[in-house]
Amino acid sequence: MMLVIFKICGTDGVTYSNFCELNRAACLGQTVNGVPVKTLHYGPCKGSVVG
After folding, report:
1. Count of other CB atoms within 10 angstroms of residue 36
2. Cα gap 4→33, rounded to integer Å
3. What torsion do the CA atoms of 40, 42, 46, 51 make, to the nearest 10 degrees?
4. Would you give the distance in Å from CA 31 to the centre of its chain?
5. Which residue range or ranges hold the Kazal-like domain (predicted)?
6. Domain residues of the chain, as ranges?
7. pLDDT of amino acid 35
8. I need a surface site. Which of 8, 31, 34, 38 has the fewest CB within 10 A?
């Protein structure tokens, strides 16, 4: 079995290394306008910071 890890663009404009990193940010209370960060799309954000 092959493990494939995708970069994830969060609603905060940060590119996360994987889904677990994005979930960690959400659990630590990272928000956008009071809403926990979520997946915007798969792949890196355009012109974003890598988290």
Report:
1. 16
2. 31
3. 80
4. 12
5. 1-47
6. 1-32
7. 87
8. 34
